[in-house]
Amino acid sequence: MTESNPELARFPLAGGGAVLVEVDGRAGVERAGRLPRVLLEAKTGFDGALAEVRDAAVAALAQFTTMTRPPEEIELKFGIKLDAEVGAVIARTGVQGQFEVKLKWRKDPAPLEEESVEEA
Asked: Residue 60: which domain range?
């Protein structure tokens, strides 16, 4: 039975420093025994990797905000997986990519009737 061997990837931050992220081991590579974790240097910065996913979220959001009757609330959920080779990707479940979208509309409030106020 082959287990996924997590590795660490260092993603540099735009403002300096870096963040370490646990990533899945490389496919097809098996380790014999208990070897120390491997530290990979990411090919893209953390900020840049997330910026690409952010742009995808903005594009998805634009599709719902430009509806004839846009929803009052939009909730967009998706998982992000960081990869040392390609940066950030939208995580998948099973064979499909995953986006969860929740749109809410409230019933139009009934128009208020004007009340007449008489002065005595």
From this structure: 7-104
**Do 87 and 52 meet the contact criterion of CB atoms below 8 Å apart?**
yes
Buried b (16+ CB within 10 A) or exposed e, 98-115: eeeeeeeeeeeeeeeeee
Q: Which residue has the tokens 């128009």?
A: 111
74-109 per-position pLDDT tens digit = 988 888 888 888 888 777 766 555 678 888 888 865
- Give the pTM: 0.59
pLDDT tens across 42-74, in order?
888 889 888 888 888 888 889 999 999 889 999
Q: Which amino acid is at 59?
A: A
For residue 41, tell me if it sits in a domain. Answer: yes
Asked whether residue 42 is domain-assigned, the answer is: yes
Please state the domain count of the chain: 1
- Is 120 among the domain residues? no
In a domain, 81, yes or no: yes
